[in-house]
Amino acid sequence: MQSQQFRASGQCRCAARLMGARQLRHGTKLSLRKKPAAFTCHSQVPSRLPHTTSHPEFFPTQAQEVKEQAALDFMSRMQRSTIDSASLTCPVETAYLGPSEYGSQHQDQAPVLLLHGFDSSSLEFRRLLPLLERSLEAWAVDLVGWGFSDSGAASQRNMKLGPKQKRDHLYAFWKEKIKRPMIVVGTSLGGAIAMDFALEYPQAVKKLVLVDAQGFLDGLGPWRVAPKFLINLLVQVLKSTAIRKYAGDLAYKDKALATDDALLIGRLHTYLSGWAEANIAFIQSGGYSLSKRIPLVQQECLVVWGRNDKILKPEYAEQFSQVLPKSKLVWVENCGHCPHLEQPQALADCILDFALTAKAEQVPSSY
User: Fold this and answer.
1) Is the CB of residue 325 less than 8 Å from the CB of residue 78?
2) Which one from 196, 337, 340, 353 is the annotated catalytic residue?
3) What does residue 262 show for φ and ψ, rounded to 5 degrees?
4) What are the tens digits of pLDDT across the range 18-29?
5) What is the dihedral of CA 276, 256, 45, 146, to 10 degrees?
6) 22-36, 97-111, 170-184: least confident range
7) Nearest of 197, 60, 206 to residue 141 by alpha carbon
8) Which residues contact 343 (CB under 8 A, 6 or more apart)?
9) CA–CA separation, 10 vs 58, rounded Å?
10) pTM (2 decimals)?
11) Residue 309 appears among annotated catalytic residues
12) How far are the Cα atoms of 74, 144, 153 from residue 167, in angstroms, in the given order?
């Protein structure tokens, strides 16, 4: 076991400059006199790209109501590409955000791919990705069946959209777009998806970053065998404003971040055709059961956890640290379930410190 424990705060970059990256790597606790500032949507994620309010046509009309500039900038850069996968019955119009002109300059470093959680989208990373792409090539993709990727579920009956289909779609996207070993960052259920992908396609994954990740909660219980009309009822409840607002309040330590605009951004993809059918298909698959396979993950892993997570208790962070053969643990202070939204600078600093030691590699053409 090669686990180490770190601490991070909302001002991790400032402290790192003062104390030196070497101290961070050797587990020095950061002591800050000032309380980390709360995230400010418009000022704390500066971008080298001009601000915009336009977005691609595949977004629903409700996107016109979004106010956060970071979300508007992110949407304006998203695009779709047709990705074929053997385990899916039709090509997937895959929504993603590729590297900017600045991120593309970092070909000497391993690229980073950001994976969102359950029934979410890449818009989760609207505050994080701009901070990462200053130093490396950063990607974000909407997994098949979720986000703004069109799986075709609206027109196909009994479509399968379980872990295998998501894994194979992600591999096809990697082969088509990224093409070299990458650092995969998974948040919440995206962490389980990242580990599942690394176990199946180790040649594609150089390192893993697990952010408040799911992994020890297996399956979806009795919902897998529930009648379809009950699953449909559950899915409609998941879409409701009340449930989404409750989840948003639970996700943040700083409740001021759970705004109406954040709620809209978080459920924007639910207005797309096929959203309900895709979620029904995932629930019927039984979801991810990964707990017994976690010790088999051989890549170096960075485990990052919000100290105040109320959705996935911090004890899971310690469990990951103990079970993963090559792991480091970082605590993000003053933070709930979503460090990428609540403390994006602290998370970016920790990812960059972990990622920039990973040099780019080429993959044999036979893969």
Assistant:
1) no
2) 337
3) -60, -40
4) 333 333 333 333
5) -10
6) 22-36
7) 197
8) 8, 9, 10, 36, 39, 306, 332, 334, 335
9) 35
10) 0.84
11) yes
12) 24, 9, 17
- Give the least confident one: 22-36, 93-107, 137-151: 22-36
Q: Which of 119, 196, 212, 309 is labelled catalytic?
A: 309
Total Cβ atoms within 10 A of residue 82: 11
7 contacts 30 by C-beta, under 8 angstroms: yes
Closest by CA position to 187, among listed 107, 242, 129: 129
Confidence class of residue 367 from pLDDT cuts 50, 70 and 90? low
Q: pLDDT for 79-100, tens place per residue?
A: 999 999 989 989 999 999 999 8
What the block records as the tokens of 39 is 């995230």
Q: State the number of CA atoms in the 13 A half-sphere of 50 facing the CB.
A: 3
Q: Using CA atoms, how far apart are residues 179 and 73, in angstroms rounded to an integer?
A: 26
Q: Which two tokens stand for residue 195?
A: 């580990």
Point out which residues pair with 80 in neighbouring strands.
95
pLDDT: which is higher, 327 or 29: 327
Asked about 188 being catalytic, the answer comes back as yes
> Among the options 188, 285, 321, 327, which is catalytic?
188
DSSP string, 207-259: EEEEES---SS-S-GGGGGS-HHHHHHHHHHHHSHHHHHHHHHHH-SSGGG--
